[in-house]
Amino acid sequence: MNPPTKAVPTRRSWAEPFRIKVVEPVHTSTREQRDRAIAAAGYNTFLLRSEDVYIDLLTDSGTSAMSDWQWAGMMLGDEAYAGSRNFYHLEETVQKHYGYRYVVPTHQGRGAEHILSRALIKPGDVIPGNMYFTTTRLHQELAGGRFVDVVIPQAHDPGDEHPFKGNVDLEKLCTVIGEAGAAQVPYVSIAGTVNMAGGQPISLENLKAVRELTARHGIRVILDATRLAENAYFIQQREEGYSHCSIAAIVKEMCSLSDGCTMSAKKDALVNIGGFLGLNDPALYDEASNLVVVYEGLHTYGGMAGRDMEAVARGIEESLHDDHIRARVGQVLYLGDMLRDWGIPIVLPVGGHGVFLDARAMLPHIPREQYPAQALAAALYADSGVRSMERGAVSAGRDPTTGDERFPSLELVRLTIPRRVYTQAHMDVVGESVYYVFRERERVRGLRMTYEPRYLRFFQARFEPA
Ligand code: F0G
């Protein structure tokens, strides 16, 4: 046998634990077409038509590929108005894997946030949490509450490689409770992987400490379980004592340290639509299941079709398989490592659901008032048809009391990876486009906002070149 002429592999790769049975065509476009499309969309990637997008990394929400087992379950939808068997399957699955006694279905995560905020928050209340999320904070504010960020300071520094940037600053939490008074703090809001920090996890050690501290004051802990499986993966990989634990066991332990959860099933749970509230307190359940009838639908469907509840139940099972989550996060790390190796400023460590570009570091010539992250997302789309999302000042919106714009320390563009949808070759195309835009960064110009909606402005705001 002749010796090999090319370099031999020095590693053994992993691959996705599935093969592809159905495909959906995507189309490339010309630079001219994309320039026109992004201008027509007011330089807001939310306002692009999906058909004009080549690789869609806007969000991992509702964009995952369902399995054959989930699709088979869709055919078993029991569309009775009341008491659908799919609801009971969902309820059993949540009880088994998350451990909550009661389940209130909702059409998606913000439906659960709305019900919970109405049930628990009274005007003047303070809700501490490990960094804000857009819809979560808005529902807290609409119920008369005020969100206070108690995440550790490292979370606000894109380059800090703390392994658990979603951790709570316990001293700060203590101070917030002391100043507000425990009676004014209805719950502490804890996200499993912090979206706005770049998909960063909280450690079990820290969550236990939060539980202990809040228990002393009789304050509830409510988890945002939207990406809890991804958080569990980081605990398994990084936290001492958990390397031998399954993702399912870690998820259950995290839930056991809380009094309830809000869930957007559109992420971890691998469905296109759905959500729920998980609760333990019977009185709170009564209140929530009454409110859900007003705002979502009967308490055995909450805005979902029976088939959707079946897909959620099956998706939860699949989301907790170790080989699934390793490949899911592994694909995100693949893209993140590529960009990092090429010297592109990203949030480190790489998060669970996407790679976050540090727009301030990438485009230092654009002032904050001209929304560098919004401009970067538009430039990336124009370059290659890759759609990303702004996660900076536009997303942060305005302070409800002063009306001033909020300029968070993180001005990011999120390349969000849908689950089980794209291949490694897609990731290469994305990485190369980011590199090209970075190389030509002087050409990217800032933006001026020409239309600003009142709520969650990032979804519908329009811009023009400044
Ligand atoms: N909580 C977190 C952490 C989220 O990321 C989201 C949605 C929600 C709650 C609300 O859930 O969309 O089902 O109403 N995040 C999407 C995103 C929109 O793109 O990150 P929803």
Characterize this entry briefly.
This protein has 16 helices and 14 strands. It has helices at 31-40, 68-74, 85-97, 109-120, 134-142, 170-180, 204-216, 228-238, 247-256, 282-295, 306-319, 322-341, 359-362, 372-384, 393-396, 424-439, and strands at 55-56, 102-106, 126-129, 146-149, 187-191, 220-224, 260-264, 275-279, 354-358, 386-387, 389-391, 412-416, 447-451, 462-465.
Q: How much strand?
A: 5-15%
What does the main sheet amount to?
A: 5 strands, mixed
Class from secondary-structure proportions:
alpha/beta
Order of SSEs: HEHHEHEHEHEHEHHEEHHHEHHEEHEHEE
| Overall radius of gyration | 22 Å
Fraction of residues in helices?
Answer: 25-40%
- Largest sheet, order of strands side by side? 2-8-7-6-5
What is the straight-line distance between the termini?
64 Å
Shape: globular
Bound molecules: ligand F0G
User: What is the CATH top level name of the largest domain?
Assistant: Alpha Beta
- What is the number of strand segments? 14
Tally of distinct domains? 2
Assembly form of the protein: single chain
The average pLDDT score comes to 97
Low-confidence stretches: none
CATH level-3 fold name of the largest domain: Aspartate Aminotransferase, domain 2
Q: Judging by the overall fold, what is the CATH architecture of the largest domain? A: 3-Layer(aba) Sandwich
**Number of discrete helical segments:** 16
Say which CATH homologous superfamily of the largest domain is assigned: Type I PLP-dependent aspartate aminotransferase-like (Major domain)
